[in-house]
Amino acid sequence: MSLLPRTYPVILLLLLILHFALSLASDSPSAYEMLERFGFPKGILPEGVRSYNLVHDGGFEVLLSCDCEFRVDGDGFLLRYGKRITGKVKSGQLKELNGVSVKVLLVWFGINEVVSSGTDLYFHVGPLSASFPMSDFKECPKCRGSRISTDIVLDS
Which residues are the signal sequence here (predicted)? Predict the structure, then answer.
């Protein structure tokens, strides 16, 4: 007797498991949908999210396809998002942020916290903050293009 007929149930089982795993993966909410579940507008993340990971304690990692810059409030502040953004999230609060910065005059400062309160978002840079209406973040901004790193590393 051939082994081939016995392998049919095993192959069928493997195909069913693969199909189930793929259907679960496709039902996972996007990073933008997860932001909305925590009380944030989807537009605080630019277009181009490749993947994200959210763990039980609220820690997260978002991977973008490239570094990204865009303006908030028309000709206002210039925001920069790195390819990798990390932090912790809970309802109405993004804290311990890394990978997001704002240009003030000629200097870039890291945004370490974003708080959602009423109809406004408060972006914190150390002890300072600026507020913007959530309506400014209804749509995901398009990046101005990937930036070229200006960081210089010298080997001694």
Answer: 1-25
Enumerate residues 6+ apart whose C-beta is below 8 A from 40. 92, 94, 114, 116, 121, 137
pLDDT over 90 (residue 121): yes
> Cα–Cα distance between 85 and 66 in angstroms, integer?
11
The whole-model pTM stands at 0.72
For 92-96, the CB contacts below 8 A with 24+ separation are 92/38, 92/39, 92/40, 92/116, 92/117, 94/38, 94/40
Cβ-contact 40, 121 below 8 angstroms: yes
For residue 22, which amino acid is it? Answer: L
Q: How far apart are CA 36 and CA 30, in angstroms?
A: 10
Q: Where are the domains of the chain?
A: 31-137
Which tops the pLDDT comparison, 92 or 76? 92
